[in-house]
Specification:
Elements: H1 12-20, H2 29-37, E1 42-45, H3 53-62, E2 66-70, H4 74-86, E3 91-94, H5 100-111, E4 117-120, H6 122-125, H7 128-136, E5 139-144, H8 166-170, E6 176-180, H9 185-194, E7 201-204, E8 212-218, H10 222-231, E9 237-241, H11 245-257, E10 262-265, H12 271-282, E11 288-291, E12 304-309, H13 316-323, E13 333-339, H14 341-354, H15 359-374, H16 379-386, H17 399-402, E14 407-409, H18 411-423, H19 430-437, H20 443-447, H21 464-477, E15 480-483, E16 489-492, H22 496-501, E17 507-509
Parallel strand pairs: 1-6, 1-7, 2-4, 2-5, 3-4, 5-6, 8-13, 9-11, 9-12, 10-11, 12-13
Antiparallel strand pairs: 14-17, 15-16
The structure holds adenosine-5'-diphosphate and zinc ion.
Adenosine-5'-diphosphate binds next to helix 3.
Length: 525
Amino acid sequence: MIASAPLTSDNPTDYLKRYYGYDRFRPMQEDIIRSVLSGRDTVVLMPTGGGKSVCFQIPAIMKPGVCVVVSPLIALMKDQVEALHLNGISAAYLNSTQSSKEQRQIEADALAGKIKLLYVSPEKLLSESMFIFLQQLQLSLFAIDEAHCISSWGHDFRPEYTQLNVLKKHFPHVTTVALTATADKLTRQDIAQRLDMNDPAVFIASFNRPNLSLQVLPGTNRFQQIVRLLNMKPDTSGVIYCLSRKSTESLATKLQEKGFMAGFYHAGMSGQERSMVQEMFLKDDIRIMCATIAFGMGIDKSNVRWVIHYNMPKNIESFYQEIGRAGRDGLNSDTVLFYSFADVATYKEMLTENNPANLGLQLAKLERMQQYADAHTCRRQILLSYFSEELTEPCGNCDVCRNPRVTFDGTIIAQKALSAILRLKERVPMNLLIDVLRGSRSQQVLMNGYDQIKTYGAGADLKFDEWRNYLQQLINVGVIEIAYDQHYALKKGILGDGVLFQGKKVELVRPDDAPKVVVEKPKTK
Ligand code: ADP
Ligand code: ZN
């Protein structure tokens, strides 16, 4: 039935209608598509569910030749290709799970011009035989999915991704589009650089998901708290993310004993078991999925009404991606993070034991996550400022906004800190900055001549711990930022100029006025 004639239009919207059945593009999609069609290398940052796929698929359909899609998740390739087939688009994948006969057939189809999109894993792409094959193809485009994997600043670094720069070397005239749902500033820069992109156009869609409520609860009596939360949301679907495989199973069992339709999912299960529970979840036969982070990638369930983190994630990128699985239909959905110091300690232990090359970075990312949980300013502002996006007003849809802390005008404190940071040329980390502000006569201060700068001692009225606390608050709201690539030096953040030069006020919370975590007030009628 799909045998209708191919479109000849040069209007991307016609393709959106014909192949996807949608009437109009979401913000940015069309600009991105036009950028790619014009032959410019393009970087796309769009949250999960934002609609990245059409940004390379429509150009792939419109341009002559084959679009090679690099995707790290072999398990998802099949689903993606099947979804394309359902839309009447010719696509295939090549990976190590196929027999060589299957692979040869696909290669023959591609050479015969029967395939518009060819999905490959990075390992496969980098093999020599693959290169010989690619050289015979007419290539329309390279699409690098999950492009943050290329950066060691990212949260999901995959070394094989770093070799993708060979694509530009061998195919300098093929346009490259890189797509990701999570990337902080350094990761973004890294993506363009490591792919050897040529003056790329960068599109950053808003990461704001106002329909997701944000709440942090103390990590005590978690089970009772979960039962209470679930009872408030009967007949809704949601995910409870746990740290260990074992705890997904035990939590699911305990919930079943209480009469909930709960299941579990983790990477230790067989592929068959996993696809079975996943299917049940999609069909609402399981309402509550107790899962490790293995669950969720590529699962397109629009009516997930809540996401609970039984344990704190390791970094803000992961947290954001995981809560982003809720409310994809745009309806109000709730997210709850249980936070305890024990979890942080467990991570630190695990990290230090594994001793990865980027241990310092991972610990710093963990600390940012902890600061989010500890924060007493609008949590959404913290999340967005992490992705260098400014939310001008507190969101009104997080627990802090609903239970505001007592604040005071901390503008002078912010200005002192910023001024010292600039005079120190944005080169010193937090503790040293505090020493300078407090007029310490430590070796490090004196040896570097920091006692000579104008703001030396300007913050002597505050204790060391108070400064630490305020600086963390200033980082959280984007007045200051941490340069992970420069030994964690503190730098002026996106709001820094506003505070220094444009009279922007900063509200701070005194450390004593900040409860560690605030439990939601029960709603009174
Ligand atoms: P991402 O890859 O960014 O997570 P997808 O490309 O999978 O997101 O798109 C998420 C959902 O949004 C899909 O169901 C997709 O069909 C839908 N979608 C994409 N573009 C549009 C559009 N212009 N109008 C309506 N729905 C869209
Ligand atoms: Zn808020």
